[in-house]
Amino acid sequence: MAVKRKHRASHWRGRSVLVTGGAGFIGYALATKLADIGARVYVLDIKPDLPAFSLGKRNVRGKITYIRGSVTSKKTLDDVLKRKGIRAIFHLAAEAIVGRALKHPAKALDANIKGTWTLLESARAASSVHEIVVASSDKAYGSHAKLPYKEDAALQGLNPYDCSKSCTDLVAQMYARTYGMPIAIARCGNVYGPGDTNWSRLIPDALRSTSRGRMLDIRSDGTFKRDYIYVDDVVDAYMTLAEHVERDSLSGEAFNFGNNKPLKVSDVLREISRNTPHLEFQILNTAQNEIQYQYLDSHKAERVLSWKPKVLLRDGLKRTAAWYSDFLPNLKNPGQQ
């Protein structure tokens, strides 16, 4: 039976919310949305500060309280949760780049796994916390012969990044089931949209390459198939899940969030070319330790949460291309391009 959606603003207005990893791509979009509708938003991140740019129609960057620190520090977490009276936690802090995790597995495992259990230990002792969403990933499933992934599929990530997300997911489930904590897990596909400055990802790199008039290098053979989901839909998914995790007894539950329309890399490049007709690329086929086919079945989220993605790829890419066309020429450090 589908959950009846409540008016979101009334749930979040005045609510103290912690977003770990909130200076990252998805975390900043989430923090911006929460601040825009009246939540008291605290961001914990190891970066020097929030991104200099604003997102959305209104600049609410000044309404977000930034705390520089690591989720692997229990002292920091205990202090933040107690002093700020945090009621909702969105745990997004992680090593999110597959290539970096491959080069530095110990750092990725420390950030992604230790960071999760450290946060949840602090939350377990904090009586103010009523809802926790842990960001897992479709990568947590690892390689399966049967696709799309459904939530009951085994978590068997074997590459450093995939393994770290499998473990993150299982640690979250353990705390929820063993200690009765209000934790739900979000497993998303490949997220794209305004604000992503991780240039190793396909869509930001394609738009940056076009702006510089250079050739885009494709690591795979072009046939890798993935879900692509617009960042606003992911923010909506996280918030929807948090709103219902305690009230509707979803503790320990995992939900897939994707478009249910997997695409090859070559298909995405074709769609990007609609907005950037001068895109040129070359297939290198040098990808290592990456699974060729990964995509999700998101019907549980539709059935239980009444959640569905709203932004089609074509519309999402159009909005994304427009954002980068404004952002890229104004980068203060040309080396970032």
Written overview of the protein:
This protein is of the alpha/beta class. It has a domain at 9-192 and 230-261 and 293-310: NAD(P)-binding Rossmann-like Domain (Rossmann fold, 3-Layer(aba) Sandwich), CATH 3.40.50.720. The protein is built from 11 helices and 14 strands. It has helices spanning 8-12, 25-36, 74-84, 98-103, 105-124, 160-179, 202-212, 231-245, 265-275, 299-305, 313-327; strands at 16-20, 40-45, 64-68, 88-91, 131-135, 183-188, 190-192, 216-218, 225-226, 228-230, 254-257, 263-264, 281-283, 293-294. The strands form 4 sheets. A 7-stranded parallel sheet has the order 3-2-1-4-5-6-11, sandwiched between helices. The chain has a 3-stranded mixed sheet with strand order 12-9-14. Strands 7-10 form a two-stranded parallel sheet. Helix 2 links the parallel strand 1 and strand 2. Helix 2 (25-36) packs across helix 8, helix 3 (74-84) runs parallel beside helix 5 and helix 9 packs across helix 11 (313-327). The longest helix is centred in the middle third of the chain and has 20 residues, at 105-124. The radius of gyration is 19 Å and the shape is globular. Mean pLDDT is 93; it is low at 1-7.
